[in-house]
Amino acid sequence: MNRTNLNWLIAVLAVLTLTACSGDEEQAIAKPEPVHFESGDECHVCGMIIEGFPGPKGEAITEKDQQVRKFCSTRDMFAWVLQPENANRDHTLYVHDMAQTDWQDPNDTALIDARDAFFVVGSDRKGAMGPTLASFAEQTDASDFATEHGGEVLAFKEITMDHLNTGMAMHSMDGMDGMATGNGDH
Ligand code: ZN
Ligand code: CU1
Questions:
Q1: Could you tell me if 83 and 25 lie in one domain?
Q2: Which one of 24, 116, 131, 136 is most buried, counting C-beta atoms within 10 A?
Q3: Residue 96 C-alpha to ligand 2 middle, in angstroms?
Q4: Which pLDDT tens digit goes with each residue over 143-173?
């Protein structure tokens, strides 16, 4: 993270902390605000330049040291989040709400908390890395999308590594089934 981003983050945190004091006392630690995607940003998982690719993006602000990680796709964000060293961490996570923005060019005003979002897995719409997870703030929007583009609606906590490679996994399974049947006849 560069210095400008860090200063900006600290300023945002300070403002949020002040606001929290006047309101809910339970809200001791403020959640950092989303950071905008900028040209030249690289995906933390695959290293691709994120700009110019369709589909929802992801970002994480790490729990411990508030480092910003950006991801070319929700798929790559989950590939990182589901790693054993991240799975139980309270990283702040953002994804685009695709009900609010254009699939081809998602706008950062549509970033929402990924942990509260609904995801369509296995649809026909492609992200930066091919098959991806379409993210939505509202479950009804996710259902509408799944009706139009196929796939299954899942909550954040329901996503597993198996969901990240659905397209590829199904093809290889088909091939293996065929071989297993052939060999079994001997
Ligand atoms: Zn990536
Ligand atoms: Cu990539």
A1: no
A2: 136
A3: 17
A4: 999 999 999 999 999 999 999 986 544 444 4
Amino acid symbol at 111: L
Ligand 2 centroid, distance to 165 Cα (angstroms): 14
Residues 86 and 147 in one domain: yes
What is the C-alpha to C-alpha distance for residues 31 and 127, in angstroms, rounded to an integer? 27
Domain contains 116: yes
Distance 178 CA to ligand 1 centre (A): 33
Residue 79 Cα to ligand 2 middle (Å): 12
On whether residue 41 sits in a domain, the answer given is no
Same structural domain, 14 and 78: no
31-59, pLDDT tens digit by residue?
999 999 999 999 999 999 999 999 999 99
* Cα–Cα distance measured from residue 112 to residue 96, given in angstroms and rounded to the nearest whole number: 6
